Amino acid sequence: MRQLPFASAPFSEYNRPRRIRPAQTGAALAATPRAGDGVAAGRVGDAGGDVALKRPPACLGCGLCATVCPVEKVGGHAIVSFLAEGADEPCSYDVWLCTSCWRCQEVCPGEVDIQGLMMEQRRREPAPEGYQRAFESVLACGYALCVGPEVNELRAACGLEEVELVPAGRVRVLLGSAAGPPESGERD
């Protein structure tokens, strides 16, 4: 059996946390929780209302957030550093890939409000086009990808049950003001 080149080194040598520049001590700002993740009132990037900011303990730069993040390019304290520096440029990390699992915040020894910072950055950046299309599809049919009669015909041909459509009115009730009033001629 052939030996792999990395087999002789300890696993920890290949599983190091990414080293990302820590935030300046006491300089990181975090948004307090509020409704909205960048898509509200039918418009991207407008969650409405004021954001209350607080000063969490500074990022220690330990990299724990980056090691538990399920999305490779999203590292929690990279976002903290970005917002702490007050840069007006778009974030180099795609905050829209964040799954909002909160694992980064759970392991943070400095108790930095990483999730709040992620949501604040989402409010500052326009949502990617695909996210807006998915949001509009949810409003229209209750699913991120609309299911039409042709899909149910194909499912029936395969012996599968039809996909039950969610009434548009119910989707609007669940989404609240972000959905807007039901339009005439829509299904119930």
Overview of this structure, please?
The chain is mainly alpha-helical. It is 34% helix and 4% strand. The C terminus is likely disordered.
Summarize the structure.
This protein is mainly alpha-helical. The chain has helices at 11-14, 64-68, 76-84, 103-107, 114-124, 129-141, 149-157, 168-175; strands at 30-31, 39-40, 43-44, 53-54.
List descriptors:
188 residues, mainly alpha, 2 domains, two-stranded antiparallel ribbon, disordered C terminus
Strands of the biggest beta sheet: in what spatial order? Answer: 1-4
Give the integer mean of the pLDDT values: 62
CA-based gyration radius: 21 Å
Please summarize the sheet with the most strands. Answer: 2 strands, antiparallel
Describe the secondary-structure layout.
Elements: H1 11-14, E1 30-31, E2 39-40, E3 43-44, E4 53-54, H2 64-68, H3 76-84, H4 103-107, H5 114-124, H6 129-141, H7 149-157, H8 168-175
Antiparallel strand pairs: 1-4, 2-3
